[in-house]
Amino acid sequence: MTESADIALIGLAVMGQNLILNMNDHDFVVCAYNRTTSKVDDFLQNEAKNTKVVGAHSLKEMVAKLKKPRRVMMLVKAGEAVDNFIDQLVPLLEPGDIIIDGGNSEYQDSNRRCKDLKEKGILFVGSGVSGGEEGARYGPSLMPGGNPDAWPHIKNIFQSIAAKADGEPCCDWVGDGGAGHFVKMVHNGIEYGDMQLICEAYSLLKDALRMNQEEMSKVFDDWNRGELDSFLIEISRNILKFKENGDYLLEKIRDSAGQKGTGKWTAIASLEYGIPVTLIGESVYARCLSSLKDERVSACKLLDGPTSKFEGDKEEFVEHIRKALYASKIVSYAQGFMLLREAAKVFNWNLNYGGIALMWRGGCIIRSVFLGNIKKAFEKNPELTNLLLDDFFRDAIHKCQTSWRIVVSEAARLGVPIPAFYTALAFYDGYRSSRLPANLIQAQRDYFGAHTYELNDKPGVFIHTNWTGTGGKTASTNYLA
Length: 481
Ligand code: 2AM
Hints:
- The chain is an alpha/beta fold.
- It is 53% helix and 10% strand.
- It has 19 helices and 13 strands.
- The protein has a seven-stranded mixed β-sheet, sandwiched between helices.
- Strand 8 (164-165) and strand 9 form a beta hairpin.
- The longest helix is centred in the last third of the chain and has 34 residues, at 314-347.
- It is globular and about 80 Å long.
- The structure holds adenosine-2'-monophosphate.
- The site of adenosine-2'-monophosphate has 12 residues, from helix 4.
C-alpha cells in the first residue's frame, strides 16, 4: 500500500465532504473515512467521482495510506465520538503524527485532549471551522489551536483551503491547547450578538416606524453599502424581500428562536472569568424570551405598554438607528475581545488579536468590512487593552452616541424591546465612568455580612466597620481558614 495521501478526513457529513472537495481543489490528496463505511463508497462514487480522493474502510487502512508525519482530521459529532476516535487512532499512529479536531468541541475538552496526547507524543489541534456548508466547500474561516509543533505541518493545507480576505488567508495559528475552539466559541457568541442587533433594528423599523418589508429591505440595502457592510445585513435584506407564492415569507415564520448552545457557552465563560460580555448574554436571553411564545401570547392580553406613537422624522430616525446599531456593534466586539484577553491570561495563551479579526474577516457568518478595521486597530497597537480606546472606534462611537441615546430613549418611550442596544449603551456609560455606585454595594456587603471594604485612599487595605453599634468588630474574612 502506498503512502500517498496528504491528509485523512474522518466524518463524511456535509461539512466533512465539502472540506475534502475543497482540499482536493487545492491539489491535496485526501483519504476519506467514516464510521458507517458505506458512506465512503457512496462519496467516492458520487460527490468525489473523478477527483484524487481515496477512501478507506478501516482506520488501519486509512493510516497506512498517509504520508508522514500523518495528518488526521476529524469532523464528527462533538463529545464522545471525538474521544472514541482518538482512542482508536493513538495505537495506529507514531510520535510526531497529528490529530486535528475540526468539530464544534468545547474548548475545555480540547485543552484536555491536547495535554493527554502530548504525553503520548501525538500533536493535537482543535480547530474552529466556520462558514457552514458553503464555506467548507469554497473557503471557510479556520481557527486552529493546540500543540504549536503541529502548525508547520498543517499550515499549507489550512491556509490554502481557507477563505481569503484582501488576498490574505482567513486562517492563522491561534494559540495553545483549546485556544482555537475558544476563539470559535466567542465567534459564535458574537454572531448571536450581531443577529440580535439586526433583529432589534428590524423591530424598530417595523414597530416604531411602521415600515413595510420593501422599505425595510431598501434600508438594509443602503446600510450594506457603508460601515455596516456585512454578510448578515446582506442576507437580512434578501430575507425581507423574499416572497413565496406572492407573499412575504418572513411574516409567516414563528417568532421563537432556536439555539445550539455556543452563545450560551460564551455567556457562561464570561461569568466564569468575570468579564461583562453583556451584549452576547442579552442575545442569548432574547432567544430564550422569544421561545416563551405561548406565555407571551397570554401576557400580551394582560400587560399594558405605552400607547404613544412615533412622531418624528422617519428618515432621520432611520439614520439614528443605523448609528445606534453601529455603536452597539462596536461595544459587542469590544466585549468579545475582552473575554479573549482574559482567557489568554487564565490559560497563558499568546493570542494574536489582529490575526483573529482577520480570521473572522472572511469565510464565516460574521464576516464584514468592520473586522478589517478591528484588524487595523490591533496591528497599530497589539497591546490595545480595549477596542473602545482605539482612535478609530472611539471617534466612531463619539459620532454615533447622540443617535444611540435618542434611539434607546425613544424605544423605551414606545415600548419596543431592544435589550442589546440598551445593554451596549449601559456598558459604554459604565466603562467610561471613573466612579460607579459600587461603593454602596461594598458598604451594604460590609453592613450585613462584614465582608469588608477598601477606602479610596487606601486600596488593598480591607477594613470592617461596626455600622449599627451591635454588629461586632469581626470581619467575615476572619472566619475563613
Ligand atoms: P456516521 O455517518 O457513521 O453516523 C456527523 O454526524 C458525523 O459524525 C458523521 O460522519 C457520523 O458518522 C459521525 N459520528 C456521529 N456520532 C459518532 C460516534 N459516536 N462515533 C463515530 N462517529 C460518529
